[in-house]
Automatic annotation (TrEMBL):
<feature type="transmembrane region" description="Helical">
    <location>
        <begin position="46"/>
        <end position="71"/>
    </location>
</feature>
<dbReference type="GO" id="GO:0005886">
    <property type="term" value="C:plasma membrane"/>
</dbReference>
<feature type="transmembrane region" description="Helical">
    <location>
        <begin position="83"/>
        <end position="103"/>
    </location>
</feature>
<dbReference type="InterPro" id="IPR035906">
    <property type="entry name" value="MetI-like_sf"/>
</dbReference>
<dbReference type="InterPro" id="IPR006469">
    <property type="entry name" value="NifC_ABC_porter"/>
</dbReference>
<keyword id="KW-0472">Membrane</keyword>
<keyword id="KW-0812">Transmembrane</keyword>
<dbReference type="Pfam" id="PF00528">
    <property type="entry name" value="BPD_transp_1"/>
</dbReference>
<dbReference type="InterPro" id="IPR000515">
    <property type="entry name" value="MetI-like"/>
</dbReference>
<feature type="transmembrane region" description="Helical">
    <location>
        <begin position="228"/>
        <end position="247"/>
    </location>
</feature>
<protein>
    <recommendedName>
        <fullName>Molybdenum transport system permease</fullName>
    </recommendedName>
</protein>
<feature type="transmembrane region" description="Helical">
    <location>
        <begin position="123"/>
        <end position="144"/>
    </location>
</feature>
<dbReference type="InterPro" id="IPR011867">
    <property type="entry name" value="ModB_ABC"/>
</dbReference>
<feature type="domain" description="ABC transmembrane type-1">
    <location>
        <begin position="45"/>
        <end position="247"/>
    </location>
</feature>
<comment type="similarity">
    <text>Belongs to the binding-protein-dependent transport system permease family. CysTW subfamily.</text>
</comment>
<keyword id="KW-1003">Cell membrane</keyword>
<keyword id="KW-0500">Molybdenum</keyword>
C-alpha cells in the first residue's frame, strides 16, 4: 500500500474516533455507574434493543424478498423502484417520520381506515418499530441485492435445468448464496435501527417506557442533565460497538 495513503487514512480514523473519545472527558467517573443504571436509561436501552430486534426481523421478512426481486426481476421500471427503496438512506429521518405520520396518522389515508377498526399507530411502540424499519431496511436490501448480483444467476439456472422448481431452487440454492452477506446486512440493519432518532420522535413521540428509545432519552435528558446524557451516549456507543465487533467477524468468516 502506498505510504502516502496513511495520512488521509489516519485523519479519517481520527475524525471518527476522537469525537467519541471526547465524551469520556465530559462525564464524571464517580457518577457514571449511577447514571447508567438509572431507571430512565435502563428502560430506554431495553426498549431500543427490543424494538431494534423486531424491526430487524421485519426488515428481513420484507426486505429479503425485495432484494431478490431487485436482483433477479427484469420488470420494467426496476431502476425507479430501486431509487424509492434507497430513498430513506438520503432523506432526513424527520422527513420519513412526517411521511409515516401523514400516511398512518388519524387524518392520513391509511390511518383513517385503521382508525375505523380501532387501530392507532402513531405514538405507540409499534410506531417505533415502523420508523426504525423504514430507515434501516434499505441497508439489508442493499447488502442482499449486492450479494445476489455478485454471485450471479448461474447456480440457479443449473438447478432449473436439473428439474428444480422455483421454490426448491430458492431454498436450496438462493438462500445458501445469501447466508454470508446476511450476517453483515443484519448487523448494519440492527445498528441503524438502534440509533434511529428523527423518524421515531416525529412519528412515535417520546413517551417513557413506550416510545422513548435510548437516542430519544439522550436528547430529552440533555435538556436538564448533560452528564446523564453523556453517560447514555456512552452506553449507546458501547452497545453498538459490541453488536458490530461480535457479529461482524462471524459474517466475515461466513464469506471466507
Amino acid at each position: 500500500m502506498p505510504v502516502v495513503l496513511w495520512v488521509p487514512a489516519v485523519l479519517a480514523l481520527a475524525l471518527v474516533v476522537l469525537p467519541v473519545l471526547g465524551l469520556l472527558t465530559r462525564v464524571d467517573p464517580a457518577r457514571l455507574p449511577a447514571l447508567l443504571l438509572s431507571p430512565a436509561a435502563l428502560d430506554a436501552l431495553w426498549l431500543s434493543v427490543i424494538t431494534g430486534l423486531i424491526s430487524t426481523g421485519l426488515s428481513l421478512v420484507l426486505g429479503g424478498p425485495l432484494a431478490l426481486v431487485l436482483a433477479r426481476s427484469r420488470m420494467r421500471g426496476l431502476r425507479v423502484v430501486r431509487a424509492f427503496v434507497l430513498l430513506p438512506l438520503v432523506l432526513p429521518p424527520v422527513v420519513g417520520g412526517l411521511a409515516l405520520l401523514y400516511l398512518l396518522g388519524r387524518t392520513g389515508p391509511l390511518g383513517q381506515l385503521l382508525d375505523t377498526v380501532g387501530i392507532r399507530l402513531p405514538y405507540t411502540t409499534a410506531a417505533v418499530v415502523l420508523a426504525q424499519t423504514f430507515v434501516a431496511m434499505p441497508f439489508l436490501v442493499i447488502g442482499l441485492e449486492g450479494a445476489l448480483r455478485t454471485a450471479g444467476g448461474r447456480y440457479e439456472e443449473v438447478a432449473a435445468t436439473l428439474g428444480a422448481g422455483p421454490w426448491l431452487t430458492f431454498r436450496r440454492v438462493t438462500v445458501p448464496l445469501l447466508l454470508p452477506a446476511l450476517g453483515s446486512s443484519l448487523v448494519l440493519t440492527f445498528a441503524r435501527a438502534l440509533g434511529e432518532f428523527g423518524a421515531t420522535i416525529t412519528f412515535a413521540g417520546s413517551l417513557q417506557g413506550t416510545t422513548r428509545t435510548l437516542p430519544l432519552a439522550i436528547y430529552n435528558t440533555a435538556q436538564s442533565d448533560v452528564d446523564a446524557a453523556v453517560a447514555m451516549s456512552l452506553l449507546l456507543v458501547v452497545v453498538a460497538l459490541l453488536v458490530i465487533v461480535v457479529a461482524r467477524p462471524k459474517a466475515v468468516e461466513g464469506r471466507l
